[in-house]
Amino acid sequence: MSKLEAGPWRTSVAPMMDWTDRHCRYFHRLLSRRTRLYTEMVTTGALLHGDVPRHLDFDETEHPVALQLGGSEPADLAQCAKLGAQWGYDEINLNCGCPSERVQRGAFGACLMAEPRLVADGVKAMVDVVDVPVTVKHRIGIDKVESYAFVRDFVGTVAEAGCGVFIVHARNAWLKGLSPKENREVPPLRYELVHQLKREFPHLVIAVNGGITTDDVFDAQLQAVDGVMIGREAYHHPWWLARWDERFYGDAPSALVREDVEERMVAYMEREHAARGTPWHSIARHMMGLYNGLPGARRWRQVWSDHRLKGEPAREVMRLAHERPVLAAGAELL
Q: What fold is seen in the domain 7-249?
């Protein structure tokens, strides 16, 4: 696949609980126009019985943006997918990869991989009521089940229900004995199984997720699959995204500089505060990695993270963050 033929799932940022809220997605969209962005997982119960605008509201600049759902009941999934499409999301994604015990108690997430027929029923129910793509994010296996046949049969069954896009975290999910954090680190990465899925299902879009932190690994994966989804590396080193439109889509080199992005984030903080009363620090937390690797980045983060400045306007905090510190002997840095 050449850069100019790249599909919508060539680059994406993973759904991450407590991280990829709409403020984080606004920030990431400033860095890349093309990369597909995903919401945090939203459970069907939260949408059917909770505050729909709070869960589904997003800024128009976020497109292309996908809604990730957590649930297992086909009728509930259909109703929530319809809500997501009406709200304007470009994709509805079903979470079949989260290993947390809280998610398991709700009978969704990675444990659904043991019930491919139920997943297929849920996918079909959603496909029948929306015109946007319905996709699935899943693992390569659960617990000690490490055979390729397990994930192959899961993908084959769900694809027959109308799912054409599978985003595969290339690790097993251990449902007992490991925390969600350990589930991202302990089970070994087995990219070869994801590559084998693409060979066996060439008509499907297969994207890989898990442990990809460098350009070289990113490039190598794109030789074997259709797309790469990046998680925590995109959050902690967001400037990486600023090169993706040129590198992976053939766009003209970006003239974007970090200071421009920070200025636009401050303007966004001011708008959000005026419109909703949103405190700037709940937005600023997502951009703490903007200057990572540059001289002065640590002090910049310290200023933006200083709880004593929460009462100051965001623009004043930005000024302080870039002010050259002149300290008297024994004085404290912010």
A: TIM Barrel (3.20.20)
